[in-house]
Amino acid sequence: MKFDALLFDFDGVLIESEYLGNKHIADFLTERGHPITPEQSMANFMGLSGRDFLDRVESFIGGPLPDDWSEARMAENERVLAEGVEEVAGAIAFVRSLPADLPKAVVSSSSTRWISTHLAHLGLSDVFGDHIYSGAEHVTRGKPAPDLYLYGARQLGVSIERCAILEDSPVGATGAVASGGHVIGLCAGLHCTPGHDARLREIGVHAIAHDFDEVRRLLQV
After folding, report:
1. Whole-model pTM?
2. How far apart are CA 110 and CA 16, in angstroms?
3. Of the candidates 70, 18, 69, the residue with the CA atom closest to the CA atom of residue 44
4. Could you say which of 1, 19, 99, 157 is the most buried, measured as most Cβ atoms within 10 Å of its Cβ?
5. C-alpha closest to that of 86 among 154, 213, 214, 188
6. What is the DSSP letter of 99?
7. What phi-psi label fits residue 33: left (phi over 0), alpha (psi between -120 and 50 degrees) or beta?
8. Rounded Cα gap, residues 115 and 57, in angstroms
9. Start-end of H helices in the chain
């Protein structure tokens, strides 16, 4: 193993939630007079959380969010939490193949409730234990700031320079590269359209993987 710890983004890395979530956003905004495609939603909002996410949506539509935004988003989140989301192809087998004593954490813009619930759906709760960290809950500045990656590394007791980071979104990759970790841009999810890998390379990721077999080769595990 080339590194002492692994930091995983979650949505779009372990579960196929990026396209699903952005399709809901696009459908909602389009129905309320703000036409946008799922692809445009991903390009503009993917990887953001909290106030940064809401500010970006309001900037895109040129005004305040519709009154029923929060209610609609909450209902969709609850539906998805109850039903679960499929894995990114090969994610479960890859995580299960890692040495049990290798420090690993999830570092995501999503809430810890979202992460832990979906890890349970995937049968991976035991792998990460308490090392589930949210940009909206554990740090003041979420992605694209590097703070969440640095926080995750500290909680694992490993220098960020000895951590490999799996990221799929441009926002996440920006923060991951800034943290000083070794960043692998993962383009395995259904949301990764042609040119996604080139965009991540422009941000400065150290390597690109189009599936988890490539990740395994890059990490030498």
Report:
1. 0.87
2. 14
3. 18
4. 19
5. 188
6. -
7. left
8. 23
9. 18-31, 38-45, 50-61, 69-83, 91-97, 112-122, 125-128, 147-156, 170-179, 196-203, 212-219
* Amino acid at position 221, single letter: V
Nearest one of 73, 151, 74 to 108, comparing CA atoms: 151
Dihedral in degrees, nearest 10, Cα atoms 140, 91, 184, 4 = 80
Give the start-to-end residue ranges of the domains of the chain: 5-16+86-219, 18-83
- Side-chain-side CA neighbours of 54 within 13 Å: the count stands at 9
Asked if 108 and 9 touch (Cβ cutoff 8 Å), the reply is yes
CATH, domain range 5-16+86-219: 3.40.50.1000
